[in-house]
């Protein structure tokens, strides 16, 4: 087949297998015929600034060929056309119907992530509409007017005002159509001033809007009017195909304008397993960008990006980039009073734990973790080296530094900090039970300094025939009641810690063999033991004797003695899983009578 070189805006596109991007039928077309009899439909009314690409997986721009060979050998297969779902078609029809109904000379484009994901063959419900000649709120009013004329009800709409203090620089209109939220914003250009994170914005051209975006792969448009893809940076598709993370404008200027773009570059690189451009990495690691990220971006926005990295499909790659680009200490900022002070290379140690945990929870058959359990398991592993690090608050109280990272460095939920700290505390206790749970023997537990163990010993004195496994059941049961449905996460974390137990954690852990196969085997053995002991969901088991009954039998009026009895009775209940409430009360009466005789 003859290859046709088609020049568009000074860019040569070699067309071997033309991609047919067919716009809605109301537009007039010119038709170009090829010898292969394939047709390439081109809308007549195409703007001079419009750069529409019809491409195949073999497309190469002349400008980018040499750079491709130097940058990356990764080849990403793209869809030959954007496949519109039925729901998306209905939505786009309503938007175009609004143009006709209101006689609007307006171009509507889907911007950014939706176009990228569609070309990669991924589903996307992130539809952002960029409008060329009016604000999003204005178009929203027109759309509601059109829907009302059709007798269709609006499922929901809102306008989110600008709020620069919360890093919200642009008014955004939103509407729910066909159970899908759509954002509407105007095309814009941005200009940042030195030491300001708030840009000056005005209406922009499609090209200006494309170049102001964070990455070339996020700068693509899908023009709903013409049904065509627009690559106005002239490299978005090329970088997408080559698996490269590149900024449309020089990286340092892009990052200094909005330093959050550094974290977005890392997140998308990790998400798609794309390579970060060498210039981008060099500028991202610069002192200027690190300072700007710490000073210009709110901690909440930083935390949102980190959460998306940890919750994504490439958390290890993301944290590796944070460490290598010297951004780890910026995003996970420590208080100056931290003791012991973290080392400069603490990011590599944290990454080693994270990588091991990621490998474990990805193992087929190694338990089923919910999204929340998975997320917090990775955080627990990531911050495991800091489990004993504390700082003094304003009142001089020693607080776990992990609490500061979650609540102040990342502005995450208090419950996230509490859960991860609880996992760390439980991990230390789990370590002392691992051998016994593997051997199903409690002989190794006598030296533990646990109050609960004293309660069990008082029971075993009166019942010499109580099985040895009841000791394991009691201690493990109390532990699981504290950590609840995160016990599997705590077990995995303790097994990780057991591998490096006794080694100096400030050494180069990248060379440490976590013996993951052995850890998987240990985990499955211990999980089986816990389930055999009937302890899975033990936290849901209600006490056989309630507080009112304790006060009545022990003749108490309140106070800490009730708590002490609750611990004793729960110990009995765990030691005798088949015991009844009456048997438990009888035992309580015997203990009370014995105490009265000794007194």
UniProtKB/TrEMBL annotation:
Give the CDD domains listed for this entry.
NT_ClassII-CCAase (cd05398)
Q: Name one GO molecular function term.
A: RNA binding
Q: Where is the signal peptide?
A: none
Q: Which Pfam families match?
A: PolyA_pol
What are the protein's UniProt keywords? RNA-binding, Transferase
GO cellular component terms, semicolon-separated: mitochondrion
Q: Start and end of every Poly A polymerase head domain?
A: 108-245
Instruction: Output the GO biological process annotations, alphabetical, semicolon-separated.
Output: tRNA 3'-terminal CCA addition
Name-wise, this protein is: Poly A polymerase head domain-containing protein
Question: Member of which family?
Answer: Belongs to the tRNA nucleotidyltransferase/poly(A) polymerase family.
